[in-house]
Design goal:
Structural class: mainly beta
Shape: globular
Oligomer: single chain
Strand content: over 45%
Radius of gyration: 31 Å
Largest sheet: 6 strands, antiparallel
Number of helices: 2
Helix content: under 10%
Amino acid sequence: MSSPTHPLVWIVLSLLSSAPLAQGLVAELESAVDASPSSMAAGGGAAAGLAWFAANSRGEGIEPWVSDGTPAGTRLLADLNPGAAPSNPTAFTPFGNRAVFVTAFPGALWISDGTRAGTLQLATTGGTATEAPAVVGSQIFFVGYSAAAGHELFVSDGTVAGTRLAADLVPGTASGSPSLLRASGGKVFFRFQSGLWCSDGTGAGTLELGSSSTLGMVNEICDVAGVVFLATERLGVGEIWRSDGTVAGTSLVRGAFSAWPHRLAALGSSLLFIASDGTTANGELWASDGTAAGTRLVYDFQNSAHIPISIYSPFSVIGNVAYFSAEEAATGAELWRTDGSSAGTWLVSDIWNSTWSSYPQEITRLGNRLVFSADHWAYGRELWISDGTRAGTQVVVDLQPGQAATGSPTFLIPLANRVVFFANDGVHGFEPFASDGTAAGTGLLADVLFTPLGSSPSDFARFGERTVFSAQTTALGREPWLTDGTAQGTAPLADLRSGSGGSQPYGFVEWKGRIWFGASDPASGTEPWSSDGSAAGSAQLLDLLPGNGSSHPQSFTPLGERLLFTAYDAAGHRELYVSDGTPAGTTKLDFDPTTNADPQSLTPFGDLLAFVARDANTGRELWVTDGTLAGTRRVTDIAPGPIDSGCFGLSVNNGLLWFSATTTPFTYPPLADLDPYLSDGSAAGTRRVVDFPTRSVSTFTSTFVPFAGRTWFPLASGLSYQLWSSDGSGPGTRLEFDPGLGSIPGNLALCVAGQRLFFVIADLIWSSDGSPAGTTNFAFTGASVREVMPLGSSSRIVFTAERPGLGREIWTSDGTPAGTVMQPELLPGVSSAAPHSLDRAGDTVWFAFEHPLFGRELAAMHLGDAGGALVERFGQGCGGSAGVPEIGALGQPLLGDPGFAVTLDRAVPNSGAWFLIGGFLFAGGDVLGCSFKLVPPALAVGVGTDAMGRATLPLGIPNQPSLLGVELYAHWLQIDPNGGFLGSLALSDMLEILIGR
């Protein structure tokens, strides 16, 4: 490495630096009120003739949706985590005429036929892990969880009874946590302890095929015509292995790859992958027939050495051809095809002509053609289609006309003769669309997160093929509405309370072909109602409290042929009610008339309903009912006598009911010994899982972060939070950090920034390398820290916090008191701007905030205000004799980094070049088609290019605090008679450099 640039150079450059933009309102983007939220989510797949995907809808959060490719057939499958909290489904996998998938909240494996009634939880997976299952014939292999075995390999035949532990890889309660499950040859292959294993679903049939000491780290597993291929890495060297499922049949195919093999794909009986053996500059296209002699370089893309890889997308196989996105110097990143031979590998179409790149992504089969997203100078990023020829490659539809606006199609899911995808048409936000490959056949499936102007819709629930919800209008007030996902099919269900007052409907639940909910009218108050979906078919079930008194029904919960809910009776007690759907068949299950039972947490549990309630003899405990008074019973008295055990958080996992409770008197805020329990519905089958220390309170949140090989989570203990980690078992659950007494419990956040773990417990901000010695903390009194996230590549975090006299504002921290700084106030004084939805793009952290004059609008914070670093190319160069020069960088621009450097590629060989760098840019468009925007003065440094037209200029950054936040822009310039800039100059694209720490 060349010696760093002299520090005086950076002193000069700091004087040329542009000042960072101030934090605050970016613009009043919309003076009217128009939320237009986006339902965009991930996790799509096709099974059972349906497209399956996760989408965010108001009232349900991110839940599974299905579509047959038509608006009428696009619907919420189920609200698996009831209420606004998400279940975060993913890994949708075909299983016969059904689909299996996993959710994070609760951590579980599900099976579904595409209907709510046909959706069943098979097992718990524990925590938030979402490892994709593998289907092997009639068996589903997945990573499940049990208290006795931890996270291990499980197998299921698609029924709860047929779901069992396949192999306890780490005997006892410790977890084996297998990963990369892949089906091949009637077995499942997977990674365990970095090596390769396989299983037929039995303990005896589960065996190690190759340890990590033999294979190295297994990074990918791919089935090719019944033979498994592996991409591994050992001591920095990549290798390809193969296995037939036996130890003897597991062998090295070829090693000595300098770029680790990845993106393995089957093309007939051959394996395709990306790798480099050191003779090529970048990861290139390779193929293998499973032998060393038959493992060969297929195509060496002619590209610049600084580009770490030539192929930008996974392979999409149609027949005997694989399609992918790859880059060459002359064409940029475009659509390619291969049949596995060098002669059969060629560019399909240069969509964005010349060296510009269209970057095709999401390449997906549509019949005998393929659809994908791509960039184009005239359209922006939109949906394209191709038959594999240049003439047959064209844009399908321009959802947002013009280059500046872009539909950005993503998450493409093939479905028979059409494809389902998410895109933004500029009106509805990112929502699900479908296309048959033509503009006329492309349309919106559903505005999932549907919020008409000013109507504030809420309480979404499925009702047959439609959705019912509550919405506010000037004419009707808040009333129930129905939608089929189209504008024409969206209308008020009924004006239950005539005029603009509104019936204030809530709690919609579908049962027996009707919607059940609570609503009010002047004559009878708030009572239970139901509807068949028409105004004429909407009626009050009965007036539980005759007259205008209100029973305020809640928690409508179907249980077979009965509907259960809670409501107030004449004594003012909230009690459990059951109904067959008729007034005469609606009765109260009053198991203790002397006490306000106050049933809560109604949870279906097999043929029973579990809930938490109180009676005079035992206090608040766990109960179950079959819907009859005789079949309503307390499960057990966890806290003996008339004291509350504090049962809460009921969740059914793998046929067992999980909840938290205490054997000592429960008070709120909880000060009792609150521990996790599980139950099979009987007193004998109810037990404590882990006994935390006396007088502690265990709080299992949705915050789980992998770090240093374990899972970390908070535990509220006494008057302070603790941080615990676990391997998934009781004995393997341990205390990691205890901030001590005196810190009042509050919000908690965990994140990894660089090589450190940041976490916030109450008023303490911690920074750790995972060891007690490497852990520091400081008090941040009354902050209520939220939305903690890493700041670029630096070892810093950005978050929101609320301090006395300051309101909620944006803060940054390096984990020390001196390095924790509030950014300029968005609303001066005690008023809170409530910044939220933090995200980073370019050199800016973007977020939303509330302002009394502008409403909810977009705001920004420059990375330089937080010590963040950035190095990023942008703009367009002007070519010359050797093409368009490219600017690049080595390393990150961090204080004290002597190895940072800028690079030049694709320049005239053995010639002079000038590096131009300054701090200001011209406003407006490009000059003569080139992004030459530097405003004088600028610093110029001359260098010579080598025989390949490359150059490297060291810009080692001294550890000088005054350089922090310096932001500069740079070009390479060459004198070239054939240059496209001013007739005699070749100019590179631009580089933005922001110095951070």
